[in-house]
Amino acid sequence: MTFEPKIVGFLCNWCSYTGADLAGTSRIPYAPNVRIIRVMCSARIDPTFVLKALHDGADGVLICGCHPGDCHYSEGNYKMMRRYPLLKRLLADYGVEEDRVRLEWVSASEGQRFADIVNDMTERVRELGPSPVHRNLVSDAVER
Amino acid sequence: MTEDVKIGVYVCNCGTNIAKTVDCDAVVEAAKALPGVAAARTYKYMCSNPGQEMIVDDIVQLGLDRVVVSACSPRMHEPTFRKALEKAGVNPYFFEMANIREQCSWVHDDAEAATDKAKALTRAAILRVARHDALERRSVDMNPTTLVIGGGIAGMSAALDIADAGAHVHLVEQSDHLGGNVARVDLTAPYLDSARDILTERITRVVEHPRIQVHLQGEVEEVTGFVGNFIARIADRGGNGQGAPLSVDVGSVIVATGYKEFDAHRITHYGYGKLPNVVTSFELEKMLRAGRVETKEGKRPQYVALIHCVGSRSAEFNSYCSRVCCMTALKYAHEVKAAVPGVYVSDIYVDMHAFGKGHEDFYRRSSEVKTLFLMYEKGESPVVRKAAAGDDCEMLIEVDEKLSGETIEIPADLVVLMVGMEARPDSERVAHLVNISRDKDGWFIESHPKLDPVATTTEGIFIAGACQAPKDIPDSVAQARAAAGRILARIARGRLEVDAMFAEVDEDKCSGCRICNDLCPYTAIEFDEEKRKSHIISALCKSCGACVAACPSSAINALHFTDAQIFAEIEGVLL
Q1: For chain B, where do the domains classified as CATH 3.40.50 start and end?
Q2: Residue contact A37–B566, C-beta within 8 A
Q3: Mean pLDDT of the region B187-207
Q4: Which residues of B touch A40 (CB under 8 A)?
Q5: Under an 8 A CB cutoff, do A39 and B546 touch?
Q6: Strand B495-498 to B138-141 pairing
């Protein structure tokens, strides 16, 4: 049986969540592996959310926000953009592979792009196999 | 707090939209097993009156205090169900939606996978709602003064309705005159009445209106604030009076910036810009308004050809239909024949779109005035070339005629390209100015394509006319007056209820590090020097959560998007 990864998607309300809705209204089929959690802005995504998701058994985490320059809150996505490399460095230290956590920009009109990203990410995480993150590894960072 | 909750879970079939792929009964059974769930049911249409009544009855009879609806996107019906909770006497924020239509049944074919995902999303909503807090909606003052950007037929119509009702309007127009694209048109389809007559009435009333201030050669440089309380900075770009920008307080903004026509140079095989007698529809309008339809050489044309869908309905340029060109072409058949007696008019089209009121009759009447209709296949555009010296015409058009199946050559002295509509090049700037979104073609995106076509995702910002999508005059005016109506309803209420979501600082936890102070794009965070604590001005906060995620002491709480609520959701989707 092929491995079906569980991926948690954090999507900003204004661009990316609406883009995912557009994929729905346009009936663009995509892999069922991403489970979406809505936040108002990608800037709200505390790195702890990503760690918590990995800790709780996610094989991958997808973060989506508005394209640079298009943020509903002017510059929230730039904040995410700056936090992301720091988070990735931390994750690399814990042995989390590059492709497991991904940041993408999806606008409200990009239903197809959202579907493509989900399909591509699902494929890559499927190739990586189940997440190596052991609960104990990140629990210190999560419990606070 | 989460242990003694009584949650009702309602899984919508959405007719067959959800139920055809998602096993809704299985989702209900899975929900019933979760702590705190006191009732779980499916229903055909949860958003219908009986569906909402079901929730209200359960709240009253079973004493529910939280509700989850698994159905469509919360962007669609969250307000509907929040109202149902309110009706039953429960705080509307004790509600959460799981999106199992857009995110499950509409995008996954595999019923088992779709059902599993629907269960996970529903579970996440159940765990989340147990951690919801009762929130009180804020109410803000509604400034009745309105800013209208764009002085075309849409902007003027909206401005007049608002001003007639007693409120003040600032109408900002980029050019040095009112009227927009309609001012470039001679007659209108399908009744062949004069565009000038329609406009003159509007322009005169706007200019003379005591409550409308027109800013010609004006440009809105900045819009700050929030619904009911915006501040707009209007610059004067006129030659003389380049004074300091004017700052005006407004409660609402209507964007009615219109469109620009497709640049016909981009299609080489029509010869626009090379063959002197290939003109655009707007260039023909100019001739018609001057009452002289003639070639560049000043001759009366014997053959006039109209080519449809120039830049529209094409894989190469714009995929959409520009909606007005078909009827405009039929209008030209009438007008050109009236201006040049004895002229032969050929109308080279893909499909004749005659969808509007009176349009089909107009099409029939146009067929009766001896217009030669030739149909071509989408993507197989005709080719225009210069005629030989011996021919009795200026140009020849080669058409692969679809109905006869033959390649036909049509003579022409004047070729009119029916150029489509495009989003204006400054639409990106305008979108950023008022914080609204554009679709893939650059048109502004409405709040909901069917149920809310005049509002946008930014509260207090409305759109009207062809800046949203190609539109004819009646549709532009209808949308403009609808936007005015929406604003007038708010003005009549005096105060506005806005979302209860904002961020707040827990002073006991705040270390006074001030990291959050400069992060806020709305300068909603101030620093109390005496207490050495940061403080959020809730009226200015738009609840993006940037400060919440940045606070090293976890001292900032995003109401309705708390860490605990999002953690519960993460647990729910992964359980």
Answers
A1: 7-135
A2: yes
A3: 96
A4: 501, 543-545, 558, 561
A5: no
A6: antiparallel
Architecture of domain B146-258+424-495: 3-Layer(bba) Sandwich (3.50)
Please tell me whether residue B386 adopts helix, strand or coil conformation. strand
User: CB distance A73–B542 less than 8 Å?
Assistant: yes
Determine the Cα–Cα distance for residues B514 and B510; give it in Å rounded to an integer: 9
Digit-coded pLDDT (tens) for B355-405: 999 999 999 998 888 899 999 999 899 999 999 999 999 999 999 999 999
* Cα atoms found within 13 Å of the Cα of residue B393, Cβ hemisphere only: 20
Which of the following CATH numbers is that of domain B503-559: 3.90.1150.10, 3.40.50.2300, 3.30.70.20, 3.40.50.720?
A: 3.30.70.20
For B249-284, give the DSSP string. Answer: EESEEEE----EE--GGG-GGGTBTTBTTEEEHHHH
pTM of the complete model? 0.84
* Contacts B503 to A, Cβ<8 Å: none
Q: Do B107 and A29 touch (CB under 8 A)?
A: yes
DSSP string, B136-192: --EEEE----EEEE--SHHHHHHHHHHHHTT--EEEEESSSSS-GGGGG-SEETTTT
**pLDDT (tens digit, 9 = 90+) per residue, B420-434?**
999 999 999 999 999
The C-alpha atoms of residue B312 and residue B309 are separated, in whole angstroms, by 5
**CATH superfamily of domain region B264-418:** FAD/NAD(P)-binding domain (3.50.50.60)
Q: B7-135 maps to which CATH number?
A: 3.40.50
Q: Search chain B and give the residue with CA nearest A14.
A: B457
- Are the CB atoms for A60 and A101 separated by under 8 Å? yes
ipTM: 0.94
CATH code 3.30.70.20 region(s) in chain B: 503-559
Give SS3 for B489.
helix
Q: Which residue did the predictor score with more confidence, B457 or B192?
A: B192
Nearest-CA distance B336 → chain A (Å): 41
Query: How far does the CA of residue A96 sit from the closest CA of chain B (Å)?
Result: 18
Tokens of B63: 């004493």
By the CB < 8 Å criterion, does A67 face chain B? no
